[in-house]
Amino acid sequence: MNAIKENEIASCMRKAINGYLNDLDGEKPCHIYNLVMHSVEKPLIEIAIQYTKGNQTQAAELLGINRNTLRQKMKQYQIK
Fold first, then answer.
1. What pLDDT does residue 41 have?
2. Is 45 exposed, middle or buried (0-12, 13-18, 19+ CB in 10 A)?
3. pTM of the model as a whole
4. 70 φ, ψ to 5°?
5. Helices 8-23 & 32-51 angle (0-180, nearest 10)
6. pLDDT at residue 49 in the model
7. Disulfide check for 59: which of 4, 18, 52, 64 has CB 3.0–4.6 Å away?
8. 20-54 pLDDT, tens per residue?
9. SS3 assignment, position 66
């Protein structure tokens, strides 16, 4: 592990992924990258929208993405 201390989000992700892999009980994991990205991206966008009280420009800035990308992701995940 790196000498740099992990932040709380990274620690939670590490714990969740390890738990997921351990719970497979010998089954082969499949497409774990996509599983994790889709599991994290929707709630992240929802929280950013909520935090900015629906202001998509501010939410996009908070997330560090383009506003059009945010709108595309909102459509993809059916976030209003």
1. 97
2. buried
3. 0.79
4. -60, -45
5. 140
6. 98
7. 52
8. 999 998 899 889 999 999 899 999 999 999 999 99
9. coil
CA neighbor of 63 nearest in space, from 17, 73, 35 = 73
Confidence of residue 62 (pLDDT cuts 50, 70, 90): very high
Dihedral sign of CA atoms 23, 76, 34, 38 in order: negative
**Residue type at 17 in one-letter notation:** I
How far from each other are the two terminal CA atoms of the chain, in whole angstroms? 39
CB 5, CB 13: distance < 8 Å: no
Distance of alpha carbon 42 from alpha carbon 32, whole angstroms: 16
User: Of 45, 44, 70, 46, nearest to 57 (Cα)?
Assistant: 70
